[in-house]
Each structure stands twice: as C-alpha cells, then as structure tokens.
Amino acid sequence: MKKPIVKIALAASLTFSAFGTQAVLAKPTKTEQSQPYKVFDHKIIHKINADNIYKNIDYLAKVPRVAGTKEEYNAVQFIKKQFKSYGYDVEIQPFTFIGYTSPSSLELSVEGFTEKLNPSEFTYTPSGDVTGEIVLAGLGKKEELAGVDLTGKIALIKRGEISFGEKVLNAAAAGAAGVIIYNNEEGALNGTLGEVSDHYVPTVALTKAEGEAVAAYVQNKAASASLKVEGAVTEERQSHNVIATKKPTNKKKANNDVIVVGAHHDSVELAPGANDDASGTATTLELARVLKNLPTDTEIRFITFGAEELGLIGSQYYVDNLPESELNRIIANFNLDMVGSRDAGDLVMNTVDGKPNLVTELAQASSKRLNGVPTPYAEGGRSDHVPFGEAGIPAALFIHEPVEPWYHTPEDTIDKISKEKLQDVAEIVGTAIYDRARFDHMGPKDKKVKVKKEKNKELYHNKSIK
After folding, report:
1. DSSP type of residue 265
2. Residues of the chain with CATH 3.40.630.10
3. What is the pLDDT along the chain (466 residues), one digit of tens a residue?
4. DSSP assignment, residue 46?
5. Which CATH superfamily, name and number, covers 5-99+235-437?
6. Three-class SS of residue 313?
7. Could you tell me the fold of the domain covering 103-231?
8. Considering only CA atoms, which of 128, 122, 126 is closest in space to residue 199?
C-alpha cells in the first residue's frame, strides 16, 4: 500500500502552552500519608531500575535525533534491539513527511547603510538571491498592502498581530521578491513560517534595534537591499514508529482492551534531547522490560513515535491508520514526554480537554499510594497524547512543569537527568498501567469522550510564529 505523505502541522505560538500552564485541577492542598501499597505494586516497583533508564538515555542522547535523519534511524534501530532483547516481536512503521533543512548561510545588506546586520532564519523560508528596493510594509496585513505594488521589491515588515507566514504570503501576493521581518520586542527573533508553501519568498529576521534602524534609514530615502538565503531545502523524508506489543498472558481470560504507553524518540536540531525525549523513550523501554512477563488480561503496546517535534506526525499517522475497530479497543494512552530533568518542576499530567479520564484516575490513585498525594492534572497539548485524545481515547501527558531552562537547546544533556525523577515517574505509570491490565482489576472504568480537534494548532511543539 502506498504510504501517504503527512504534512507537518505546526504550532501557532508559545505564548500560551501546556508547558507554561499551571496544573490547576486536582492539586493536593497538603501532604497526606501514603496509602498502603497494593500487592501488585510491589511487582512493578521492585523491578524498575533507574540505572537502566539512565543508560538508555545516555546512549540515545549522544547526538541530536532530528526526524528523517540517519541519527533518528539509528535511534529506531537501537529501540528495536532493546525491545527484542526483552522478548518482544517488534514492528517498525514507516511514514513520510515533508521535511526542511535550514539555510547554511544568510546575507543581508542595505545600500548606504553602514551598520552591520545579522539576519536570522525563519523555518521554511526558501533559498534565493534577490536585490530590490526596500519598502516599509507595516505589519504586512492585507489591508495595509492593498493597492501597494511590491513587484521586485523587498518588504520590511514589523512583527505582530498576524503570523509570520501570513505576512510573507501577503507581501508575496503584492509582488515582493523578498521579505525582512523585524522584532517588536528586545531579543533575537527565531520563528517559523508555519509550513511549506510554494508561494513563500526568501525571508530573514532582524532584531528590533536593527529593524527600526533600517526603517528609519529608508523612511525618506529610496535604498536598495540584497538578500541571500542559501542551503534551505524542502523535501519528502521518512521517519518511523517503533511498536512492541505484549499480548494477554491467558487467551481464555483476555479482554479486548489495549493500553498504549509511549514517547517520542526524535529531538530538535542541535539538541541531544536527553530529557526531550530520550527520558520518555528510555522509561517506555524500562516499563516494557518490567511488564513483559507479568500476568495481564489486557494487551499493552509500547510505542516510540517519530517526528513529534515537527507536529506530532508519527503519533497522528499511527492513530489515523488504525481501523475503527482497533481504535475502539484502545482504552488508555500514557504519554511520557520530558520526565527526567533535575531542573524542571513537579510532575503533572495534561489532558487535551483538561478533564479527568481513565489515565488520570489510574495515575492519581497510584501516585497517592506511592507518594501520599495524587499527581495533579490540567489542560494541555503539544505532545503525542493529542491524536489519541482527539480520537476519543483517554490520554494524558506526563511531564515536569515548569520545564528546564535548556528545553530545546544543546544543553539538554545527560548530566541534567535525575534518576530519582525517572524512578518516580516509572513507578507511578508502571503501577497505574498494571492496576488496569492485571487479572481481575478493580480500577476505574474507561470512558471515551471524543475531543474536537484544535484549529489553532497550539497543540504542537514549535517556535513562535506570531
């Protein structure tokens, strides 16, 4: 069967996100005494070994694992090997997407302007070498450019009100050969045009000070600029999901239910991704090892997803390609994303609609038994639980909030990982899963509520585009 191309869905903004929200629901107000462990808890917590998780993080985080690269594929093969060493049959699920390579160089100069300019990139800008008169184009809104002939010119646009992608498309529609967007606040401007488009023109970013200086320079004087973007490439690429399945141990007593536990194995450019998300991947591997030979009446699927950082592509592909009968079997999705940083905050859960579900109920019960307080939950997306939640499957993201200062940076390295946090998350999630998957479980019952897909795309990781 021909594999469909999955287009990248990107975030609209980081100004409001799951990673910045406070967990406001079900938050404990005081420390309580831990509840007595259940017998089955010991079967999990005595087997979990944080050193195993740490070692797998260390291996995965040697280099960045950008989706569609050989480094990501090497991670896929490592994960497959680990699953197989625990005794699993492993499925590698390939999928294709439209990938992007950032420019290798950017150049910008303005005729007669003596101050040095240091342009930065926008993700999805095309390559190009253009020269033309700079024209002040306000915020780049359609109404501002109505009747303005930008043919062959370079539009100088201020950040704000509409997305970067809209600004570029509006300028291009008016004939612009290139676009410069400058910041409306202090600091560097690192953004994305949102998605691939054949209608984009070469685009670069300037700081607020640089942009205002150029704007003042060309306010009453015609000036030509040269804008050059080299090495930007848009192409079809391939990534993979890795799936290991634990079947019920007794066919006669088996139910028809499936629990999915997983994480994403890719990282962003330049970031080794020790916490984001080698921590979740390695914890998934450890849970697969621990649960492999325990008696269960429920099928458990351990999945690591590719291309999460580019818009939840792997998890969306997995959910979209399951037949309805299979989707209906999945009663829970435990999503582990960034679960080991020593410098992040406390463990919380995020659900797509902010409401409790089977996953939050199971995990709150287990965390109360183990730690004396239930793990709080709140509304939040931007990770691989979103496609499951939108399909009506009880799903939750496990993450520490607030996130560490080096989120999505080259400093996301193994030395920042806390074994104590890894052990804690693995115990909470492992006992929660086993509470529901073991024979004769008495845990909460699943309730499926279909969640409307978000149109503002704030459910995805990415740079700000507003």
Report:
1. -
2. 5-99+235-437
3. 333 333 333 333 222 333 433 344 444 433 444 556 677 899 999 999 999 999 999 999 999 999 999 999 999 999 999 999 999 999 999 999 998 888 999 999 999 999 999 999 999 999 999 999 999 999 999 999 998 889 999 999 999 999 999 999 999 999 999 999 999 999 888 889 988 899 999 999 999 999 999 999 999 889 999 999 999 999 999 999 999 999 999 888 899 999 999 999 999 989 999 999 999 999 999 999 999 999 999 999 999 999 999 999 999 999 999 999 999 999 999 999 999 999 999 999 999 999 999 999 999 999 999 999 999 999 999 999 999 999 999 999 999 999 999 999 999 999 999 999 999 999 999 999 999 999 877 556 656 666 555 433 443 443 322 2
4. T
5. Zn peptidases (3.40.630.10)
6. helix
7. Glucose Oxidase; domain 1 (3.50.30)
8. 126
Distance CA 126, CA 102 (A): 9
For residue 437, what are the contacts with CB-CB under 8 A and spacing of at least 6?
259, 291, 296, 297, 298, 300
pTM of whole model > 0.70? yes
**Phi/psi at 145 (5° precision):** -100, 0
All CATH 3.50.30.30 domain ranges of the chain, comma separated, are 103-231
- Length, in residues, of the chain: 466
State in Å, rounded, how far the first CA of the chain is from the last one: 39
Residue type for position 19: F
Q: What's the CA gap between 418 and 53, in Å, rounded? A: 10
Nearest Cα residue to 155 out of 402, 105, 172: 172
Helix 280-291 vs helix 50-60: crossing angle, to nearest 10: 140
Handedness of CA 276, 282, 285, 290 (dihedral sign): negative
Three-state DSSP at 67 gives coil
Q: Are 400 and 341 in contact (CB under 8 A)?
A: yes
